[in-house]
Amino acid sequence: MALEKDYLDIPGTTVFDAEMSRKGYHLNQFCMSLMKAENRVRFLADGRAYVDEWPMTEVQKQAVLARDYNKCIANGANIYFLAKLFYTDETPFERGVSTMTGMTPEAYRSMMLGGGRPIEGNRYIGEK
Amino acid sequence: MARITSAVFSSHIPAVGAAIDRGATRNEYWAPVFKGFEFSRQWEKDNKPDVVILVYNDHASAFDLRVVPTFAIGCSEQFESADEGWGPRPVPPVIGHPDLAWHIAQSVITDEFDLTICNDFKVDHGLTVPMSLMFGQPEEWPCRVIPFMVNVVQYPPPSGRRCFELGKALRKAVELFDEDLNVQIWGTGGMSHQLQGMRAGLINREWDQKFLDLLIKDPEELTKISHSEYIREAGSEGIELIMWLIARAALGSQVNERHRFYHVPASNCALGHLILEKA
Predict the structure, then answer these.
(1) A4-37 pLDDT, tens per residue?
(2) Active site residue B125
(3) Does the annotation count B193 as an active-site position?
(4) pTM assigned to the model
(5) Which of A77, A90, B44, B248 has its CA 20 to 30 A from that of A126?
(6) pLDDT at B118
(7) Is pLDDT at B86 greater than 90 in this prediction?
(8) Average per-residue pLDDT in chain A?
(9) Boundaries of domain holding B88
(10) First to last CA, chain B
(11) Does pLDDT of A128 surpass 80?
(12) How many domains does chain B have?
């Protein structure tokens, strides 16, 4: 018997469940460390050296250094933790989010001004 | 005795707080949002509470993954504004009501809702943005506030049904408090929004409107919404709306609608706002 995960068929969405949190623990706690100014300075000065202080996987470290937020999330990051990375880079939150959508920040903002991403066609994977 | 006289529901979008703090509330983008709260600020002046029980979620500010309480109540004298990465919001310290908070903890835990009692933490935008929307920018906040946190970051959050039942236990607890206090309960977060992945930016206006309709008229019906429905229909972060069920149940079944407002977009989100008074 396994747990029912009736949210796995939602497109473009990773639910931060127990499995993801287990996977992303050190990645998320690394993000938390950026709440301290001295850590932000050290991280921005030498990102590689800073992430090497954390017991993250090499894939997680590279995702962080590349600011590949979708890859971070696929490897257990949660958006509220990743937000610390946005702020460290002084990336506005909406802009950081937009980079995960495959759209330019301008196209994303314009979509939001037009009422947001529609629900039609976005409920189930493979839905037409 | 103390009594819950009204409930306020509001999104707690951080960019709204930033717009207030930067003095950008009158620009083209933000003016329509703040217009929706003009009535509310006057209403708060006319119906000044002694205490607000403010239901919100922490966003990896007070808690990280070391400790994840499902429900937590703030029992301290005072709560400072958290530094979320761009410096603490320039708002006055939030003054708690330890006597009522401890009383609620004892009552609600006895009623089988296992709250975590917290005495030393900072409050983030989830709590301070609704306060700024409702009270503006005063030198000091006009009332005491009991922070009441719900985990909606780590899946699974508590069920909507559980939140609703907790709201009833909160109402009972407040009514058992001997001091004569006018208490408001606020439910914050929502409405539809998704902040991650290829589906980020999702807004479901129709679903949000139905949620507001039912919240007023038949909130029990909303307890049937599953977690996957919240995520599918209202976005991965739209599940914050379970917190509104706590506030709604705490007010009791018969209510009068005083104010309703809905606006898209506010940053990545649909912003919803309601004021209900006990009938």
Answers:
(1) 999 999 999 999 999 999 999 999 999 999 999 9
(2) yes
(3) yes
(4) 0.98
(5) A77
(6) 98
(7) no
(8) 96
(9) 3-278
(10) 18
(11) no
(12) 1
- Tell whether ipTM is more than 0.85: yes
Q: Judge whether A5 lies within some domain.
A: no
Residues A51 and A29: their CA atoms lie apart, in Å, by: 11
B56 close to B127: Cβ distance less than 8 angstroms:
yes
Q: Does A25 touch chain B (CB under 8 A)?
A: yes
Residues contacting B229, CB < 8 A, separation 6+: none
Identify which of A12, A113, A115 has the shortest CB distance to residue B199. Answer: A12
- Domain identity same for A25 and A79: yes
Let me know: does B45 contact B160? Beta carbons within 8 Å: no
A27: nearest Cα among A67, A66, A82: A82
Q: Please, which residues 113-142 of chain B have a Cβ atom closer than 8 Å to chain A?
A: none
* A10 lies in some domain: no
Residues of the domain holding A81: 18-91
Given CB atoms, is A2 within the 8 Å cutoff of chain B? no
User: A125 and A11 in contact (C-beta within 8 Å)?
Assistant: yes
Alpha carbon of B257: minimum distance to chain A alpha carbons (Å): 26
Asked if the C-beta of A54 comes within 8 angstroms of chain B's C-beta atoms, the answer is no
Candidate from A11, A32, A34 with C-beta closest to B199: A11
